[in-house]
Amino acid sequence: MSQHAPVKNTAKAQGKSENLLLNLAFNIILPTLILTKLSSDEYLGTRLAIVVALAFPIIYGLKDFVATRKINFFSALGVLSVVLTGGISLLELDPAYIAIKEAMVPAIFGLATLVSLKTPYPLVKTFLYNDKILQTDKIAAALEQNGQGRLFEKLLANASWLVAGSFFLSSLLNYLLATLLITSQPGTIEFNEQLGKMTALSFPVIALPAMLVLMGTLFYLFRGITKLTGLSLEDFIHHHEKHGD
């Protein structure tokens, strides 16, 4: 999420690094197939299957680091989450720790979003209000001209609470999904299969509801910007993808 790269280069880099199919393959499809199909002794065995399956999300996270050439807090926390899953599984700890870990990671995102409101760099600007999506200079000029800076800060604060809410929703759904599905002891084929099933269901059960909340937040933010600036949506959204230069 580099903030200062040229728009054209950023768009190209993002297109390569955030390929949806590649993301799904490395983070969901391949780990699920390995855990559910290759955990028996005739294939990889329970421990090696865990290592191989979780290697794919770690590789994807490292690929993001190489592509952006900077440490992304959220990618780093995602990789840490995968490492913790592997550690809990390989050390054969109580499966309750998986549920706690699953709830903890999005909860940290939510808390970080709220805490950042007290800093000069609220995370809502990273997620939604950034110059990859919006022409922030044009918006700032219009806000200053209309004398709406204070109301805009309130709008961003409200959007931050909505973004945090999406993470807390993910935290709750993560915990419930893990508690319901992970019932076997780590080190067994059943545990690996349950972990694979949880990985497969994480997208429709957790990611989609959170994405809907984020989309609603984006709509709320855009509507607020048009109201405070007098600009239309077309005036402040970047259109560089549509044009060759």
Question: What brief labels describe this structure?
Answer:
0% strand, mainly alpha, disordered N terminus, 245 residues
Can you walk me through this structure?
With 245 residues, the chain is mostly helical. The protein contains 10 helices and no strands. The chain has helices spanning 7-17, 20-37, 46-68, 73-90, 96-115, 124-127, 136-146, 149-181, 189-229, 233-236. Mean pLDDT is 83; it is low at 1-17 and 241-245.
Instruction: Give the termini distance in whole angstroms.
Output: 21 Å
What would you call the shape?
elongated
Please state the structural category: mainly alpha
Low-confidence stretches: 1-17, 241-245
User: What Rg is obtained from the alpha carbons, in whole angstroms?
Assistant: 21 Å
**What percentage of amino acids are in beta strands?**
under 5%
Helix-strand topology string: HHHHHHHHHH
SS field, number of helical segments: 10
**What does the main sheet amount to?**
none
- Total strands: 0
Fraction of residues in H or I helices = over 70%
Mean pLDDT: 83
Give a nutshell description of this structure:
By secondary structure, this protein is mostly helical. About 75% of the residues lie in helices and about 0% in strands.
Question: What's the topology here?
Answer:
Elements: H1 7-17, H2 20-37, H3 46-68, H4 73-90, H5 96-115, H6 124-127, H7 136-146, H8 149-181, H9 189-229, H10 233-236
Helix pairs in contact: 2-3, 2-9, 3-4, 4-5, 5-8, 8-9
